[in-house]
Every structure is written in structure tokens, then in C-alpha cells.
Amino acid sequence: MKLNRNDKLLLIGDSVTDAGRSHPVGYGNGLGNGYPALVDALLRTGYPELNTLVLNTGIGGDTVRHLKKRWQRDVLDLKPDWLSIMIGINDVWRQFDTPEEIEPFVTLEEYEATLRELLDAVQPGLKGLILMTPYYMSGQEDPMRSRMDRYGAVVKRLAGDYGAELVDTQAAFDRMGHYRIQSSLSNGWDHVHPNTAGHMLIARGLLNTLDFEWDTK
Predict the structure, then answer these.
(1) Annotated catalytic, 199?
(2) Which of 120, 142, 161, 190 is labelled catalytic?
(3) Are 158 and 119 in contact (CB under 8 A)?
(4) Which of 7, 15, 18, 40 is catalytic?
(5) Cβ pair 199, 177 in contact under 8 A
(6) So what's the pLDDT on residue 130?
(7) Does the annotation mark 190 as catalytic?
(8) Catalytic residue among 18, 74, 191, 193
(9) How would residue 179 be classed by pLDDT, with cut points 50, 70 and 90?
């Protein structure tokens, strides 16, 4: 296990991370109903001796622009030991569901440049960084999925550049697609918001990057 005793693990992102958390910072019973709560529960029961503090600062609807505006308050001021970031779904989604908006959508170039700026600001104080790809629960023939893959490729490149742990959430959903329709892991029609099984898939991916041993207890 890569976490040390009393480490603070902060999870930030959009609605998939938010999952109904408490504000201003979700922790304990206020982590919401998604993968942050599952990560917390598994760490508490699998590694109770570590006394890990899991924090959730996800906000529904966020793009990388929103993360930049609240980075000081919701990341830097909280001084995490480990930071997990999953952002990009809305950066792509807005290009398809509201293309008529006055504000221009987040281009691939802006997405990468902004993420690099945020990582540069936070990395010196971190013990560890986890980057999670955005995803879309569909086949590659879907235009939104195809574009999501390009944003996911940026996250993979940044993980290499910054020495971060990588959670390829899209690959995880694709593997499940060999056994069932990917959207069966969604909580509705949008192919984005996971149900409990989908959130567990994300939680397992995150914990695997931390060398969580599933059969030690």
C-alpha cells in the first residue's frame, strides 16, 4: 500500500466525483454516494491502521476552467498528501449538448494547458498524484466517445510527464463491455453518471493504483 498512516487523500472532479457530497468539503458520512465513499469504506475496512482521511471536493457540471477558479480553495488550502483528479467529461459534453452557448467550449489545447498549470501549482507539496481519464460509456463509433478519447489521451500523457499514477477509467468500462452493455453501468440515459456498479469500477481502479491488496484481511 502506497498510503502512509494519517495521509490525506483528496478527490476532485465533476458530478461523478461530487455524487451528492456535503459542502464545503465532503468527508466521513458526507462523501456522497459515489466512488469517493466506496474508496473511503474500503480503506477504512481494508487498512484501518492507516487512518486515511478521504476528502471530496467534486462539483457537478465542472470543466477544467471551474477547477482552475477554485483550485486554491478546494485543493491547495486543504494540503492533501495524495490528490486524485478526474475532469474532462463536461469539457467534451458541452460541445455536444449546448453547442450554441456564447462562451466557447474547452478546446483540447486549453484542457491540456490548464491541467499543466494546476499540476505545476500543486505537485511540490504532494506525496502522490492520481490522474483519471474522462470516459463515455459507449463504443468508439460514437462521436462523443471518440472525442472523449482524445481528451483522455491528454491525461495519459500528463501522467507520464508528471510521474502520476494513471487510472484509465475508459479502458475499465470497455473491458466490462465484453460482458454487458456499458450503459448498464450508468444511472440513467446519459452514459456518464455511474450506478453503484459503475462507481465501484472507478473505486477499484483508483485503489489498484495505490497497491490495495484485496485479499489481505
Answers:
(1) no
(2) 190
(3) yes
(4) 15
(5) no
(6) 97
(7) yes
(8) 193
(9) confident
Residue 145 contacts by C-beta under 8 Å, 6 or more apart in sequence?
Answer: 136, 138, 139
Neighbours of 216 (CB within 10 A): 8
* Main-chain phi, psi angles of 167, to 5 degrees: -110, 110
Helix ranges, the chain (H): 15-18, 35-46, 64-74, 89-97, 108-122, 143-162, 169-176, 196-209
Confidence of residue 103 (pLDDT cuts 50, 70, 90): low
CA dist 10 → 27, 62, 120, 134 (Å): 10, 16, 17, 18
The cell numbers describing 26, all together, are 465532503
CA 29 from centroid of its chain's CA atoms? 19
The model carries a pTM of 0.90
**Which amino acid, residue 148?**
M
Cα(70)–Cα(90) distance, integer angstroms: 16
Active site residue 23: no
Grid cell 459515489 is found at 34
Phi (first) and psi of residue 145, to 5 degrees: -65, -40
Q: Which residue has the cell 500523457?
A: 157
Average pLDDT over residues 144-167: 95
